[in-house]
Design a protein that fits this description.
binds nicotinamide-adenine-dinucleotide; alpha/beta; 253 residues; Rossmann fold
Length: 253
């Protein structure tokens, strides 16, 4: 009987960059990927948090990077990939909700812009930073964390929902552009996973979201990390420009 809590798909030999690795889904993904044998680069705007995650994994390193700073993204990502250090996959879990539980005319446009800067513009710049390297290698897996909010829209979360809808459109477009390159570009769309981000939302907003889930429960970090591990593995070779569902039955497409 195995004693490895992360036993499963073997990712030995894979180098994976996880953005947002200091907390929540990113941290859980980094730990699962590392537990399955991948060499993980833990990145986050919260440098000490990324370093804490990396410290739990043999061979892992940490990088402090803010995805809203284009130059920083390009410079710091360039330090973790190169001809002698292929980067096989990037999992982008950096994201914010911005203000929630308000209707659209009550939202400050600066809040709207900031959510877009992190959730959509950041995802675009991250993809731009790794795509030349991956296409040169003829292999890569890019996975962005979108949300059911991007498919259906959550009332009280206009900035977030719109940014995630944009992210889904971006992934569908990029997936087709690079379909023959060996690089797949996909997203996952979770419903509600109990992380720091959800803890910080008004309980009424969380209740609104959980009430729409046919399984009547939040997803677990383990369930999300498993889906991520598979989607960035070499096994996931015939899917691109797609959004994997993690909604307990909420999504209908
Ligand atoms: N938790 C959920 O229910 C849920 C549901 C659907 C989608 N998501 C998405 O999953 C992703 C992860 O969310 P989470 O729940 O783990 O949240 P979290 O707050 O626990 O983690 C988000 C991480 O992103 C990092 N981050 C934020 N802004 C950044 C920036 N500018 N540059 C670099 N790093 C930055 C934070 O420091 C943090 O470590 C987000 O994109 C979120 O929108 C979460």
């Amino acid at each position: 009987m195995t004693t490895n809590a992360y036993a499963g798909l073997d990712l030995t030999g894979q180098r994976v960059l996880v953005i947002g690795a200091a907390s929540g889904i990113g941290r859980a993904a980094a730990l699962l990927l590392g537990g399955r044998g991948a060499e993980v680069v833990c990145a986050d705007r919260n440098g000490p948090g990324a370093a804490e995650t990396a410290a739990e994994l043999p061979g892992a390193v940490a990088v402090e990077v803010d995805v809203t700073d284009d130059r920083q993204v390009h410079e710091r990502l360039a330090t973790v990939m190169g001809p002698d250090r292929p980067l096989h996959a990037m999992v982008n879990c950096a994201g914010i909700t911005g203000t929630t539980a308000l209707v659209s005319h009550e939202i400050d446009v600066k809040d709207f812009e900031h959510v877009f800067d992190v959730n959509l513009r950041g995802a675009f710049v991250l993809s731009q930073a790794v795509l030349p390297h991956m296409t040169t290698n003829g292999y890569g897996r890019i996975l962005h964390v979108a949300s059911i909010a991007g498919k259906e829209g959550n009332a009280g979360m206009v900035s977030y929902s719109a940014s995630k809808a944009g992210l889904i459109g971006m992934v569908k477009s990029m997936g087709k552009e690079y379909a023959e390159s060996g690089v797949t570009i996909n997203a996952i769309a979770p419903a509600v996973i109990r992380t720091q981000m959800v803890e910080e939302m008004p309980e009424s907003q969380v209740e609104y979201m959980v009430a729409r889930i046919p399984m009547r429960r939040c997803g677990t970090l383990g369930e999300v990390a498993e889906a991520i591990a598979w989607a960035v593995s070499p096994a996931a070779s015939y899917t691109t420009g797609f959004v994997y569902d993690l909604t307990g039955g909420r999504a209908v497409y």
